[in-house]
């Protein structure tokens, strides 16, 4: 069950002007969504051995004195360089017979809208090989959403080369050799970028985002509350349909799933960067009512988020609508009733960054690739070790 309220008040949120410029580079700055934004979930843990000994813990964790599995983030190290500096891109990991690969696709280099895809092989120790070209998206997109189920990824929305928000959706299938091929799927009902896509229970959910139209004068831009759902079956994406909207328009947020509840983390609503985390239960493709689940210790937008061992990780992002990029990593446990409890601060990244919307977790390694600060895209890839 999801908690319907939380004790204590929210930290103060930034209330500076929100907007993004018509080039698609956010005033939030630079440098959601979560995930990507991707759907995220914890791994099965705390399985006791047949001899009644300590639990068999997943990679990236260890048995604590309590008898449960726990993870320690030991720090971040440089893991490589992208071929092209970029922000507002999507990042994901896939396991194939040819090995495990980290993929980075789309975004902007600060000048052009990118459709290029890069990939690097992940070694058994989590270390990355060199990045190489891995094809292209059908169209360049800035700030698209990302959802993933195994070796199938869905990329939807974003800003196009015309600086308008898009309704396009592409389905990528990753082959046995690690190559990825994208084809067009059914379009979103409403154009937006800085939305999140989340896969769960055979559906993809497209939530919130920012709609932009530069073909009118003055150019129009507004956060949206739209929630859409499309079936995803055996790599085939069905048509999107509208669900009950969010309580308020929301953009630049992150999204994760834990125990059949979809959580939206931070973001921008109105002119404020939010501290609130809201959630809705998922059942049979239906979304329950949205309820307050917790608070971040500081306002946060364009962060990456993931779940591991029943704990929520929030990585980097920005605390203001203009500037405010941070290097901090936050972690909080989920309570039995679905509430997000108090956060602690973990070892920080070696540089501040926003607009690195996903930080995929694989076998105890977190990967933060690209992003930006002061509207300058980054090429550095960082590796965080969980043990």
Tell me the domain tally.
1
Query: Mind telling me the C-alpha Rg?
Result: 19 Å
Strand content: 35-45%
Mean pLDDT figure: 89
Instruction: Specify the CATH architecture.
Output: 6 Propeller
Mind summarizing the main beta sheet? 5 strands, antiparallel
What does the overall shape look like?
globular
- Classified in CATH, the superfamily is Kelch-type beta propeller
Q: What structural class do you assign from the helix and strand content? A: mainly beta
Structure annotation, total helices: 0
Annotated CATH topology: Neuraminidase
Low-confidence stretches: 1-5, 12-50
Task: Please identify the top-level CATH class.
Answer: Mainly Beta
- What is the rounded distance between the termini? 30 Å
The helicity comes to under 10%
Q: Can you characterise this structure?
A:
The structure is a single chain. This protein is mainly beta. It has one domain: Neuraminidase (6 Propeller), CATH 2.120.10. The chain has no helices and 35 strands. It has strands at residues 47-48, 55-56, 62-63, 69-70, 73-86, 90-96, 99-105, 116-122, 132-136, 145-149, 152-156, 169-174, 180-185, 196-200, 203-207, 210-213, 220-223, 227-233, 236-237, 241-243, 254-258, 261-265, 268-269, 272-273, 276-283, 286-287, 291-295, 304-308, 311-318, 325-333, 344-346, 361-362, 365-369, 372-373, 376-386. The strands form 10 sheets. Strands 5, 32, 33, 34 and 35 form a 5-stranded antiparallel β-sheet that branches. A hairpin with a 2-residue loop joins strand 32 and strand 33 (365-369). Residues 15-28 have a biased composition (Polar residues). InterPro entries: Kelch-BTB_domain-containing (IPR052392), Kelch-typ_b-propeller (IPR015915). Residues 29-42 have a biased composition (Low complexity).
